[in-house]
Amino acid sequence: MAEPALVRFETENGIGIITVDNPPVNALSPGVPQGIVEALDKGNADPSVTAMVLIGAGRSFIAGADIRQFGRGPAAAPPTRRHYDVLDQSAKPVVAAIHGYALGGGLETALACHYRIAVPSAKVGLPEVLIGILPGAGGTQRLPRLIGPKAALEMITSGRHVPAEEAQKLGIIDEVVPEGDLKGAAIAFARKIADQKPLPVIRNRDEKLSEGTPELFEGTRKAIARRARNQRAPYACIEAVEAACRLPFDDGCALERKLFDEQVGSDEAKALRYAFFAEREVAKIPFIPADTKLRPTDNPAVIGAGTMGGGIAMSFADYGFDVKITDATKEALDRGISRIRANYETSVKRGSLAPDEMERRFARIHPVDSLDDIKDCDVVIEAAFEQIPVKEEIFKKLDAIMKPGALLYSNTSGIDIDLMANMTKRPQDVAGTHFFAPANVMKLFEVVKGTKSAPDVLATAMALGRKIGKVSGLAGNGDGFLANRSRAPFGMEINILIEEGALPEQIDKVMVDFGYPIGPLAVSDLSGLDIGYDTRKRRAEQYPNYRKQPIADRIVEMGRLGQKTGAGWYRYEPGDRTPHPDPEVTRIIRETAAELGIPQHEFSDDEILRRLLFASVNEACKILEEGAALRASDIDVMWLHGFGFPRYRGGLMYWADTIGVREVYNQIAGWHQRYGERWRPSDLLRRLAESGSPLHEAKAARPMP
Ligand code: 3HC
Predict the structure, then answer these.
(1) Is 500 a catalytic residue?
(2) Rounded to two decimals, what is the model's pTM?
């Protein structure tokens, strides 16, 4: 059977319709640009055709170049006629009819058309910077000509998706048409402009380019300096837009292309492409069919109005859900509701939330007095105290009152999901849904599989996370689940390095230079050191061999709980969150180390980085060995969205591969000899090193229990 055509051409009453049909997102894969060129030639050659419409089949216009083709070497033969050039040289007008997404090369295609119309739900953007490149098909040259360099710079350096109505205000879209019959509207529009002469061709416009002053470009470079640290793509974007303002169109395009070619094979672009695909892969659970029927989740409830419960309720409200929330006492519930309101008010004060939107969101959160008031809900997320008897009690009660089929999820960060499941007569309906603090901000949503969790209960949890703007990933039900367990050795190693003579400010500087937005010790000060202290005490009681952290304990016992007490690993001036290195902390470190007889060393930055991250790489391998993670790339996604790992380094395991699996293994094996058991290399790591297989491609060594 013949392959279905990627691009179709048909005529309807004198209008040529070019339909791109390359599911799922109409990427410009090989064959698509050529198909567009052929269709344009047909339309231009057909005397009955007066104008043409370019439209996408399925759910989108065109989502851009085919990212999977990048890095595969040059295409067999570069096209002699690029569809962008053929479009804007077309003698007959072409209207781009946009629904879904017009991104990257997709928007660049639309910009080469003479007109653009879109439905209100459509989004346009040049998101190339998010995958470490810059628009490479004239986007940096056409967009500034159309909407001015300032607005173009903002769109191109942020990569954001711009909704149709805003795009119309900016001047990208000529007309927003009602949803429903885009093709009909496009044909009507095409008829309207069929006889127009001369045709509006963006490459010929330069009246807005004088806005591109040196101050604009310098200002943009300064403004992005923090978030663009260690990256080149955002600066290449600026350079290309700057070229649009000073060079003729064709020369600007040539420079853009040169920068694109330099950038597309860079380490930054490779890592960001990997992160893009890893984020799509993490949604797939191999042992659950993709067409599993999901359970309803329209009517959620949260148990516990503490910091986590409140943040979870806000996550639902922020994404349009009406959510019920309850707590053990009226006082606790009232306190929780006040805290939610205060959190929203802070966002309003910062300017990130409009006051009327705040009221809409707040009104979706419904406090209720008791568990009986939530019995008809589709889904419950329990976020009560992290104490086993409390959880057991709640799950017993939920089992007694909830309607059949209701989803019973727990936000525990460490308690065995099976303990809760076994309190019910419906353990198949129970799973973990672990949010990260602050729950309404952090994107990671760890779905924890209990031994008996039903496939649809897990699939629904994964989908629910996505519905509230999170990145869902599956974890096994072991101690610390997946994300926190993989990070625990990093935290432990920080404390050991400090005992051995590294100072908090040195460790934080290494990690910030590496790309974290803020150092790990400054983060601890921000969240409060008492949390870790309590966890350590509990763990020491639970596990006789638990490695104590005497310096961290001493800091807390001196009343230094972090920012909230004006001192922690750093000292703080009143009303200021800047961490200042504190000689007092240095003294505590040195004294404690001397008491314990721990020899002091100087550490190089590289040694610090490797000690912290390799400790977690080894643990991640153990997690894969036990089947508590499905794929190494899932661990990477969790580090990106749970712990602020720099995205342009791909993720923990991807980064380790940039050093080399053998070197990582040899280093860990050496440290095992030197420092003992905590560095015992995982068997999986050893096997990968022996075969030279990349860490980031590793899969679970056994099925998830
Ligand atoms: N190339 C190849 N595959 C792509 C793709 C692309 N540009 N965009 C999406 N896909 C694939 C995804 O990998 C996924 O595949 P899978 O089903 O096998 O996992 C499938 O299409 C569906 O994608 P999503 O799951 O992401 O679908 P959503 O509906 O959630 O999101 C989207 C749609 C917003 C279009 C999102 O996929 C996206 O952001 N895509 C990338 C857009 C982009 O970066 N475009 C610029 C490309 S670079 C470029 O154009 C260079 C040019 O300047 C020359």
Answers:
(1) no
(2) 0.95
